[in-house]
């Protein structure tokens, strides 16, 4: 197992190094002075220019410049925003919790709804029920996320007025920032209106989370259905049936835990598409996360923001993909057997 984890660590480092190399080369293609693209300082003084040359080894070879670029970016020095003149790292710290909060709520919604419906589609003897479920999932998978987000905003936000369509929280509430997760901060806030603020935060997250959850929900339903249909034909399930165990007991204790293994793997495969959809959703609903912050930086040609946003999002995708792969190997008996056999 140690060798396997070491290989995955090496994979993460190698992939991250390639990513940083692409960013390093792309930075030199920005239509602006290299020092400005690296630091965000548009009118640097002579002293600042010398500091930039020294920090990024601009008077050295290409390899030394790449190493210096790695040291600065991975060390937390991402320059300042060309628009706000604030630290890019500080802005990232401010917007990351909003994205994490949206993704966590979305993932919980997709799993909580997708797994039971997938099990129902696999176990149901009614062809009509199976066809309806699969038709709905195929429709949800095919709907463009931007169209869905705008449609939900129009109907439930504008026409019916049931739900807010932008932001995380009504500006009337003054909630101290503790964790950065508004749903948590509103609950722990020592204010007389904390519960009202929490309810408002829940209302704000319903539309963006629902829009974003449609894609993973459909994938979870389809993968769960296929996995359950396969697991229910296995020998150990038939043996459990022969022992007289109830269907519910067989599903919960024997079939479902094994059927969830392919679901875990599919989550790693759809991280890239899921992240791109999250960026679109954040823009549509003015959600103050990394996606909206990055798109705003692109519109404003804020090169330090573009670099840092792409770097953080890509590194998170790489890390989560490898982490899910490790978890899949650790929970899958067949993978563990092959793993220890190779060791």
Automatic annotation (TrEMBL):
Keywords: Cell membrane, Membrane, Transmembrane, Transmembrane helix, Transport. Belongs to the binding-protein-dependent transport system permease family. OppBC subfamily. It is found in: Cell membrane. Residues 96-328 form the ABC transmembrane type-1 domain. CDD domains: TM_PBP2. Signal peptide: none annotated. Gene3D superfamilies: MetI-like (1.10.3720.10). This is ABC transporter permease. It comes from Shewanella corallii. It is a multi-pass membrane protein. InterPro entries: MetI-like, MetI-like_sf. Pfam families: BPD_transp_1. The chain crosses the membrane at residues 12-30, 102-123, 135-156, 201-223, 274-299, 305-327. It comes from the Bacteria.
């Amino acid at each position: 197992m140690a060798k396997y984890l070491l290989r995955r660590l090496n994979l993460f480092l190698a992939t991250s190094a390639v990513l940083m190399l692409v960013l390093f080369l792309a930075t030199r293609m920005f239509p602006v002075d290299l020092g400005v693209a690296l630091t965000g300082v548009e009118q640097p003084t002579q002293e600042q220019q010398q500091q930039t040359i020294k920090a990024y080894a601009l008077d050295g070879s290409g390899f030394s410049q790449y190493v210096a670029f790695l040291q600065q970016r991975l060390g937390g020095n991402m320059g300042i925003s060309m628009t706000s003149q604030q630290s890019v790292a500080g802005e990232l710290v401010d917007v990351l919790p909003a994205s994490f909060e949206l993704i966590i709520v979305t993932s919980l919604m997709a799993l909580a709804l997708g797994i039971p419906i997938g099990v129902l589609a696999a176990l149901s003897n009614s062809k009509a029920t199976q066809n309806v479920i699969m038709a709905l999932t195929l429709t949800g998978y095919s709907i463009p996320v931007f169209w869905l987000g705008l449609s939900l905003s129009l109907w439930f936000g504008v026409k019916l007025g049931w739900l807010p369509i932008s932001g995380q929280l009504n500006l009337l509430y003054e909630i101290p920032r503790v964790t950065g997760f508004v749903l948590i901060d509103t609950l722990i806030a020592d204010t007389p209106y904390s519960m009202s603020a929490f309810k408002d935060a829940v209302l704000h997250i319903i539309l963006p989370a629902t829009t974003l959850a449609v894609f993973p929900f459909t994938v979870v339903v389809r993968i769960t259905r296929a996995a359950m249909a396969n697991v229910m034909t296995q020998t150990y399930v038939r043996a459990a049936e022969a022992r007289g165990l109830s269907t519910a007991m067989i599903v919960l204790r024997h079939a479902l835990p094994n059927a969830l293994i392919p679901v875990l793997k599919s989550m790693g495969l759809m991280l890239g598409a899921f992240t791109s959809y999250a960026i679109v959703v954040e823009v549509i609903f003015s959600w103050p996360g990394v996606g909206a912050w990055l798109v705003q930086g692109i519109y404003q040609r804020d090169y330090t923001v573009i670099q840092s946003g792409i770097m953080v999002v890509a590194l998170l995708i790489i890390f989560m993909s490898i982490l899910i792969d490790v978890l899949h190997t650790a929970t899958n008996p067949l993978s563990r057997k092959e793993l220890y056999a190779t060791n």
